[in-house]
Amino acid sequence: MGTTDTTAADAVQQDTELKSKHRRMWGLGDYPRVAREIVSPLGAVLVDALAVGRGERVLDVAAGTGSAAVRAARRGATVVASDLTPELLEAGRAEHPDVDLTWDVADAEALPYEDDSFDVVMSCIGVMFAPHHQQAADELVRACRPGGRIGIVSWTPEGTIGQLFATMKQYVPPPPPGASPPPLWGNEEHVRSLLGDRVGDVQVRRQTLPVIHFGDGEQFRDYFAAHYGPTIAAFAAHADDPERTAALERDLAALGEREGSRSEAGFTMQWEYLLVTAEVR
Predict the structure, then answer these.
(1) What's the Cα-to-Cα distance from 31 to each of 25, 83, 91, 162, rounded to whole Å?
(2) What is the pLDDT of residues 74-99, one digit of tens each?
(3) pTM over 0.90
(4) Which fold has domain 3-212+271-280?
């Protein structure tokens, strides 16, 4: 085997290990609870923006527990919800036993569907976590028919969840070469460059998700430390280092305080996201 073959084999092995790590990370904690209690309204936002209609073929990429997929199916669309993490799909299926849709284990960077298979391809705070952004974007476009629509909701780098990842960055190992930070999908210029001239009628909106689930920054920290896979992984990386653990705890609580505001209604946060819709040419 030559050097080129060895390098290619090593790259495949590294990618396989990275995907396995991602799958395990999203299986930690209780992301279905986070989806159910806080972020599920984003699914309706995306489906409404795409005007999903009865009889349309819809693919939800990195669907998680299916907050967008379920809403599309309830509109009468024929829906496939795909995700890398089987545990999330199982939770979605169990939570919505009355909804008729297909749940598929699939890699957003290598979707197991033919070209031009769907009228609508969408992803709600999901595809942003695929490590190789261009590969994932190429798959979104490939699976959607010409004249079909693509819709993506992603946390922005400047918003609360983008800042959560920025805060945790110093506490986790650096990503492997070629992997990009998830919140970049919340940058308009980045998304436009990923999709390129293969799409038209691009509509971009920055919006916020109101969150009233927490009483203060410490409750925000504790919730993520208990239920959110990436945060659990960050704490696990320093399980034997009390000082680093304490520093991470302080930084996350401080972030929660900065991102929240107090009024007579209580402690409120506004989690910013980017909503992008486009038509495939």
Answers:
(1) 10, 13, 9, 17
(2) 999 999 999 999 999 999 999 999 99
(3) yes
(4) Rossmann fold (3.40.50)
